[in-house]
From TrEMBL:
The active site is at 137. This is Pseudouridine synthase. It is an enzyme of class 5 (isomerase). Responsible for synthesis of pseudouridine from uracil. Gene3D superfamilies: Pseudouridine synthase. GO terms for molecular function: catalytic activity, acting on RNA; pseudouridine synthase activity; RNA binding. Keywords: Isomerase. The keyword Isomerase applies. It catalyses: a uridine in RNA = a pseudouridine in RNA. Belongs to the pseudouridine synthase RluA family. It comes from Paenibacillus uliginis N3/975. InterPro entries: PsdUridine_synth_cat_dom_sf (IPR020103), PsdUridine_synth_RluC/D (IPR006225), PsdUridine_synth_RsuA/RluA (IPR006145), RluA_PseudoU_synthase (IPR050188). CDD domains: PseudoU_synth_RluA_like (cd02869). GO terms for biological process: enzyme-directed rRNA pseudouridine synthesis.
Length: 304
């Protein structure tokens, strides 16, 4: 469900013109609520909240929804370079650099992507809470999706639960990966011997990784992968267990090739727009160090 008609934002309000399907109803309030739930696809939780706060109003034939109320960022703005890959009133997609966490850890001493997004909102005059929909490991690059209002957050969180947000990763791994290896379906649990590590464990949580494309070189392979589940370090654990650890991933046995992090990049992101239902596809450019590594493994007979 999504809204296919025209709409315009006016400050905190979203204005729609549903037409006689609602304006001609004797019980317009009840018909409006039903239409918002069943046709537009508004989450019931938000509908009830807007009804309680007078966030649903009629101005002549225009239906106004308070979807963009001003909100505090919820995190201190800290400026850093930010590459925006997609943005509208509902969503923001940014390209996370290597070496930056998405959100603060317990110590909270480093600038994170969320701090940077807060600074971007502040500079752009966007009064919205910083709400990331998914995460990437600190040293993994690629697109991170943010919701710019509560409507988008509720819809995108549900899309994540339903596995409707598609993330394609590129990984450069050691060894020649067999073309027969298409799916890695192995449960993942905590490693009791190492607080940061995860491992394949029969008592762990279900984890499924799919290899959708590959390029095999002399002693390494480039893989494009998708996730059916989102376990911590899932790609890294699965590939290491199969004997194809990601290059530079010292935590999971990937040998170094003068590359200071794991060679893992979020290459593409695809999702349904939370309001219009339009399919949004975002490609994240490869970082320069990963491009250089790819050129190196393709041209040299041995990795050192």
């Amino acid at each position: 469900m999504s809204y296919q008609g025209n709409w315009v934002r006016r400050g905190e309000w979203l204005e729609l013109t549903p037409g006689k399907i609602l304006t001609g109803q004797s019980d317009r309030e009840g018909a409006t609520a039903k239409w918002l739930l069943e046709t537009v696809g508004m989450p019931e939780k938000l509908l009830r909240k807007l009804q309680h706060t007078e966030g649903i109003q009629w101005r002549g034939d225009r239906l106004r929804l308070s979807l963009f109320p001003a909100r505090e960022a919820g995190i201190e703005p800290m400026w850093s370079e930010l590459e925006v890959l997609y943005e509208d009133d509902f969503c923001l997609v940014v390209n996370k650099p290597a070496g930056m966490a998405v959100h603060p850890d317990d110590r909270g001493t480093e600038t994170t992507l969320n701090h940077t997004v807060a600074a971007y909102y502040e500079a752009s005059g966007v009064e919205a809470a910083v709400r990331h929909i998914h995460r990437l490991d600190k040293d993994t690059t690629g697109p991170v999706l943010y919701a710019k209002n509560e409507y988008a957050q509720l819809k995108l969180d549900e899309a994540m639960r339903q596995k409707e947000i598609v993330r394609i990763y590129a990984a450069i791994v050691q060894g020649r990966v067999s073309p027969d290896l298409k799916v890695i379906d192995l449960p993942i649990g905590k490693d009791r011997h190492h607080a940061q590590r995860r491992r394949v464990s029969l008592t762990g949580q279900t984890a499924v990784t799919r290899i959708i494309e590959s390029e095999v070189y002399r002693q390494a392979s480039l893989l494009y992968l998708s996730l059916e589940t989102g376990r911590t370090h899932q790609i890294r654990v699965h590939l290491s267990h199969m004997g194809h650890a990601i290059l530079g991933d010292s935590l999971y046995g990937g040998y170094s090739v003068s590359f200071g992090r794991q060679a893992l990049h979020g290459a593409r992101l695809s999702f349904s727009h939370p309001f219009t239902g339009e399919i949004i596809e975002v490609a994240a450019p490869w970082p320069e160090d990963l491009l250089q590594l790819k050129a190196e493994i393709a041209s040299k007979p041995f990795l050192r």
